[in-house]
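Ticket #4471: structure output looks truncated?

Reporter: J.K.
Steps to reproduce: submitted the chain below (524 residues) through the standard prediction queue, then opened the result file.
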Amino acid sequence: MAKKTNEHTPKLLVRQATPADVPALVDLTARVYTPEWGHAAEMLRSQQTHFPEGQFVVEYEGQIVGYCATFRIDEATALAPHTWMQITGGGMASRHKPDGNWLYGMEVVVHPDYRGMRIGQRLYHARKQLCSDLKLRGIVFGGRIPGLAKNMQRYGSAEAYVQAVVEGKRRDLTLSFQLSNDFEVIGVIRGYVPSDYESLGYAAHLVWRNPRLLNQPDIPSIPTPQRLPDSVRVASVQYQQRRIKSFDEFATQVEYFTDIAADYSADFVTFPELITLQLLSIENAELSPVESIRKLSQYTPQVKELFSRLAVHYNINIVAGSHPTEQANGDIHNVCYVCLRDGSIHEREKIHPTPSERTVWNIIGGDSAATVQTDCGPIGVMICYDSEFPEVARHLTDQGALILFVPFCTDVREGYLRVRYCSQARAIENQCYVVLSGNVGNLPGVNNFDIQYGQSCILTPSDFPFARDGIAADSQPNIETVLFADLRLESLARARNAGAVQNLKDRRFDLYETRWMTKRDSQS
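Returned output as attached by the reporter:
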């Protein structure tokens, strides 16, 4: 009778190395490097003594077929030129620093009879997981370039050969594998392992940056002195416009939705563009379009006081839609008041009034787009039509914004879809979150505000860490409701550093640029 096997027992196991593994590791390294260059038992024990959690083995059907060794090191040492013997302390990992912010990969060994089973890839994954768990900046090491000796005459230098491999013009057995595992070359190290004749003693200086960290140098910096939360809860109010009799009635409706968002522990609640046009139904007077907008602007002090008070009282950051506001020179701008829970008020103007806003209401566009610093990191505001201009979102993202809020007001489905499709594009190309909030309902008798079509939503980039369709939350069209979504900021860092596409990193600064001008620049 055949012996029964336990189907739940894994054949292949990646685990932390133990002292009992040392004899098997001596044999494995001797098999790979020859007995002369294999690792001594003292060396292997020293590695485990200094940093036990950084040593891994792959066990297949009870036999150790793979092994890797790591230790922690400070950034200055790790990124400076060095040799393998210097940085590893002769292979003992004696330069391990318990507070080091980089993980140094000093060794990866795979049994030659088991190559093709992605043993090396599994070991790299274990390293990356350790790096992420410890919240280190990344992994760094010197990688062999075994094709160099055979091609040195053709390329003339180690640097030229490595560049050819990076550009995909030449395949190197080891370096190409490293690149396929998301490592990047930051230089070439001379004399790294003098006895590595295939590499002529050179090594590619390689790094993998931890995508869970938001402060990597290759994504826009996030200028905030506070540690960012892992997750931000946002609420979007799909607000029904209805006739009211007083400002207090308007305030009651706004407070109701703010209270709801706060009850669900939201960090932000956003309202639609031109939400305050509802106030024109109070007097129910026959006014020209321009007169109605100037009349509405008289409510500006009350609007600012209301939203600021609610933000503090309910401990929530409010993106207060937008409100037509008269400027000191008499111009009317469409202004979004961002009222933070610390009591501060920030004004962000619509930059691109629609043709209808310009001709019917005589609204003038603003001339700046700056982020707002919040306790959840920098945010950006694009009011409706602004979302259809990619330069605005890129400018905000380059300032560090991770979430863009789009209060909108559209009358028909075609207009709404322009805002939605463009906002989805902004989320993808900037690898950020975009929150839309729109009006529904009708206000008979209010000029240029006859009908509304709205379908508020919360959009994400389109990649594996995010919602399946790039939509974190969606609403039914033209029904008053509130949407909620938890947005993980670390997912943006992962996508920007190691996503299927990396739009921010892959921009061609050698070909094009976006320059944001001030009024002074445009007039000079």
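Triage note (M.O.): checked the attachment and the full token line is present. DSSP finds 16 helices and 20 strands in the chain.
Status: closed, working as intended.
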